[in-house]
Amino acid sequence: MIKTIASCIERRSNRLIYSQSLIIPYCESYNNSIFVFMKGKPIMITNPICVFDSGLGSLSIIRELKREIPQENLLYFADRSHFPYGTKQHDELRGIITNTINYLTRYKPKLIIIASTTPSLYLLDEIKKNTGVSLIGVKPPLKEACRLTKKKHIAIMATQASISSKALTEQIRREVPQDILVTKINVSPVIHLVEDGTYLTNERRTFDIISHIIGDELDRKIDVVTLSSTHLPFVKRYLSDLLPTVKFVDPARIVSREVKRFLISGRKLKRSGVGRLEVYVSSGKRQFEQIIRAMGVKEPVQEISLNF
């Protein structure tokens, strides 16, 4: 008998509703794994590394994880119904992040990555104290930037919410020596260029907006810039063209190495095989799918709606 995936999953939690438009033969659970049978072939979603944020930024983390640990299963959840995280009040954002983590625990993940700088700055330490799952966030890679700078002057490119946060100020105080200057650059408009796919379809507009944000003098005084939003690696070629003498520090590479170290230390790293990627989105599936196809992601996209 044909069932929707929703009818299978709803028996496990009243808080999860899958899109009724996705029709599959059936799904089963066995030994704490969820098997999805699609077109007669079983797909096992088991012990993945879960990566989520409010949009496309997670893909920069996914890209590096696939290079660093290609044998591991990955689950990518783009919570576009709550985009952007940076405009949310603290309590609202805490509820969104906490409920998302609670939902992802049903997949028995080895690790969950909060692939967004804003909640990582605001909430990571707080949420770690109140959850039983292993978590990693994505914070500005200030220590690496300080190690690389020769001019003793670095820049942090991030959203307005991150730039203005007390958490970032505290991180700078802890991690940046007093003899190194820090310039903060609000790149919120660039995040939207990535999220709606403009950076792929309109190079002139993308170049003009980035050029306007960074100005003409930045590379005369600064030699290292942190890409402190997971969306920014996707426009690195524009940044490199405009600032050819500047080194850009991509937190995605740092996070992927941290994940590998975590898996090795906990004896959780798979030694062989080829990992699978599952992709989920909470709204706007059609546009989202079009954009990630243009970015080279070929995996099927499943739309889910979460009751929070």
Shape: globular
| CATH fold-level assignment of the largest domain | Rossmann fold
Unreliable segments of 5+ consecutive residues: 1-44
Assembly of the depicted chains? single chain
End-to-end gap: 31 Å
Mean pLDDT: 87
**For the CA atoms, what is the radius of gyration?**
20 Å
* Beta-strand segment tally: 16
- Count up the domains: 3
Which class best fits the helix and strand makeup? Answer: alpha/beta
The percent range for helix content is 40-55%
Q: Number of DSSP helices? A: 14
The strand order across the widest sheet is 2-16-15-8-7-9-10
Strand fraction: 15-25%
Please give the largest β-sheet: 7 strands, mixed
Q: Which properties best describe this structure?
A:
Rossmann fold; 4-stranded parallel β-sheet; alpha/beta; disordered N terminus; single chain; 308 residues; 16 strands; 14 helices
Layout of secondary structure:
Blueprint (H helix, E strand, L loop, with lengths): L2 E2 H5 L6 E3 L4 E2 L1 E5 L2 E6 L2 E5 L3 E5 L4 H11 L5 E5 L11 H15 L6 E4 L2 H12 L6 E3 L4 H7 L4 E6 L1 H4 L2 H10 L5 E6 L1 H8 L2 H4 L1 H12 L3 H4 L2 E4 L8 H7 L4 E3 L1 H15 L11 E5 L3 H10 L6 E6 L2
Parallel strand pairs: 7-8, 7-9, 8-15, 9-10, 11-12, 11-13, 13-14, 15-16
Antiparallel strand pairs: 1-3, 2-16, 4-5, 5-6
Helix pairs in contact: 2-13, 3-4
